[in-house]
Amino acid sequence: xxxxxxxxxxxxxxAEDRRFPPSDEFAAQxxxxxxxxxxxxxxxxxxxxxxAARLTWETPFEQVLDDSDAPFYKWFTGGRLNVAxxxxxxxxxxxxxxxxxxxxxxxxxxxxxxxxxxxLTEQVCQAANALESLGVRSGDRVAIYMPMIPETVVAMxxxxxxxxxxxxxxxxxxxxxxxxxxxDCDARVVLTADGAHRKGAVxxxxxxxxxxxxxxxxxxxxxxxxxTGSDVTMVEGRDLxxxxxxxxxxxxxxxxxxxxxxxxxxMYTSGTTGKPxxxxxxxxxxLLGASWTQWEVFDLKPExxxxxxxxxxxxxxxxxxxxxxxxxxGTTSVLYEGAPDAPHRGRWWEIVQRYGxxxxxxxxxxxxxxxxxxADIPAGYDLSSLRVIGSVGEPINPEAYVWYREHIxxxxxxxxxxxxxxxxxxxxxxxxxxxxxxxxxxxxxxxPGVAVDVLDDAGEPVPDGAxxxxxxxxxxxxxxxxxxxxxxxxxxxxxxxxxGKYFAGDGAKKDAxxxxxLLGRVDDVMNVAGHRLSxxxxxxxxxxxxxxxxxxxxxxxxxxxxQAVVAFVILRGDAxxxxxxxxxxxxxxxxxxxKIARPRQILVVAELPKTRSGKIMRRLLRDVAEHxxxxxxxxxxxxxxxxxxxxxxxxxx
Length: 653
Ligand code: WT7
Fold this sequence. Notes:
By secondary structure, the protein is α/β, with parallel strands linked by helices. It is built from 22 helices and 30 strands. The site of 5'-O-[(S)-butoxy(hydroxy)phosphoryl]adenosine has 20 residues, from helix 13, strand 20, strand 24 and strand 25.
């Protein structure tokens, strides 16, 4: 990716000059003001040391940061605490036992219940007792393969309570993927359910576990929650029902404190190579990152807010902003099991209205889907309770940002575009809702206490107005500690490209004000006739057209120009498809960015290939664009999408 010569091609983003400062009323009541940046800048390590007072410690730490064995940093050395106690018991002891921890909204109609902090604490104690009676000890790994139900939170916190690191595997993964993860971290106990509801159908989780365990002879116990009532085979001597073990266990459990660096969980994420990486997070630093950033970035008021991260617990977003952040802060959250369009496309807005949700956090892909469905759907619900709305997971196109602010946020709420990764554990780059005049499409700047930069190929910081590689230049509390079982890969992947700095794998640009725009993974960057173009930048331009709902752009090999831009677009419902549409859109992009960015080819499609977590799989589109056999599609949410797109490409002029 280039550095200094890039900006001319970034016109469509640079031309974005809308600004959304917080209202005076919002700024006046905000948790965090401008001064926090100065405080953190004055002494970053001391800043984190002071933030750590929001956790309840059994033994205070002696040292905030131990960097003697970098990049194996240690935080809060000497300190001891229990993560589950921080999330539960301390709130009950403070008199908040009757506060709702989760409003659980199941997928089946009218399947809903609210669970208080007292109830959740009791259930976690029961599960902790049950796990201990099954022989699970501190340090043992436990795999969790469960739906989006309260028992999943109970399972995670029970593990945390007894110091057994969990590895939650997203319930959309296959038996092979599950087995690979269980084997990689050598889990001996699996927590699961008979099935998961998904748009009226049932995903047979237990059956998938049975299949996975054929490859995992060391797993001795599977505990099964009855969720869907599906028929399952219980293997004698291995399988137990949750309601016959956990729900019969003692409701009190004496929690023990663990070292600040005690492993809390392993979350697998895909790297550039085949084998998924087991990202290890530890206790105190991780919990602090999740807790503090939820409070800071969403201006959290735990007494009054109803907070909703509409993501899956099976990803890091769910770990940090459904479970650990919200519970450590004593938040009342929504936990929603279902899909946005089951049973109807107003489902999310119905939930916001029902619970009076005040903070909503979701992914741009969801926002663009809602755009496609039309603004009249959310307009049919009362969304006036919302006061902060957030975005995460991929760059948010300016058009999607503005639509989100307008049609969901009522033109009133700050929008926080939050950049982070499984590896970073918590939000790193984001506006602060009471401080920042937001720019649509920009994550703006590093949070107080977080140090990032954008470097060129030679590792030099790029000047304002230029793009390069995003790095984190100083350690932070919720950073990954290693890749499970592979310290070497940890060093290679993150610390060798720019020695001493964390290489995020993302491209970014500093605008003329020095604010940050994330440009997507560096492997999504194209080189067209010597010009560097970001796939995201052209997608942004396309989505800015009134005709387009969603766009994916890839760089396809081209004899003349090296790479050429090929775009796949979904038209908005009211836009008529026709031979002139592609030509019109090519000109539109040319006008927005420059002729160099004009796609060689634009293909109108009905769906884009997405992973189950909603990321567009550009690799597959590149295969189609380059007329290759389409590669591995097993991680796609809908594997038939690629057949349809390939046929469309073959028929295209
Ligand atoms: C990658 C990390 C962080 C939780 C969800 C994804 C992309 C994430 C943004 C954002 C632009 C973003 C990056 C990053 N990403 N947030 N606000 N703007 N890009 O976690 O699966 O570990 O993916 O998601 O490319 O590297 P993940």
